Amino acid sequence: MGSAYFPRSKTMNIKLHTPKSLQAGSGMSSMKQFLLSILATTVSIALTFGTAAIIDHNKKQKEKREIVMMVMYDMYNSLKSIEKADTILRQSMEIQRQLAEDTTLFDKMKANITRLVPMPSFTETTEHIFSSNIETINTVGNVLFTENVAEFYKDRQLYATNVCDTIRNKLVEGNVLTDLKSFLDFNYFSDALLSHEITTEMQHLFAQCKQMMGVTDEEIESYRKEREHMDEDLSDNNEAMDSAMKEYIRLQEEIDNAKKKLKLEQAI
């Protein structure tokens, strides 16, 4: 009896694929990537808004510094002008003393006497810009500085009115500057005391403002030179405009003369 034939079974090559969610460590890896994504988004948002905030802060600081320097420069110029006026009053009293000791000097000193009229020079432009604009005051953000500046400008106006205007009116009305007796009888004392009191107060306020805003004399000097350079450029522009205007006038005159001449020739 022949042997039975059994066909050889083929070996089955079956691969089992484990789901990704079940692979070792895959869940932790996904969570890590998710957290990193959140972190990256958060950092990106923080950088965007943080950079914008820094830029805005720097812009406000720059605007604040420009306003402060503008005001300090105006205070500096005003104070220098008033200090000069205060010096003139002391000079007037000194000349009074010299003439009281030797009246023969009057004719010789008369030219100097007529120039001894305190006339401080300043404009109120910066004061109006600073005092009337609440946004400007908020930009500076220093209440004490604002109060000191307001007090400084109040003293400046007080000096102009109660010292300079008062003395000038009395000098003119009394013919003081051209008459020896009137000049010797003129009482500078009370006005000089008031002048010194106001000047000292303004000097104190100016020094306080410099200190609280961290402004140095060197910075004010640098700002002064910059402003004077700008004024010179403006003056040059005005001269150029004046020159152009003169040229236009000359051309118009020549045109008018030529037209008159043409009319005369046509009439002939």
Give the ordered list of helices and strands.
HHHHHHHH
Enumerate how many helices there are, as a single number: 8
E-strand count: 0
How far is the first residue's CA from the last residue's CA? 161 Å
Describe the structure.
- The chain has 268 residues and is mainly alpha-helical.
- The chain is 79% helix and 0% strand.
- It contains 8 helices and no strands.
- It has helices at 26-101, 106-114, 125-131, 134-140, 143-173, 180-185, 189-213, 217-267.
- Helix 1 packs antiparallel against helix 7 (189-213) and helix 1 packs across helix 8.
- The longest helix is centred in the first third of the chain and has 76 residues, at 26-101.
- The chain is flat, with a radius of gyration of 42 Å.
- Residues 9-19 have low confidence and may be disordered.
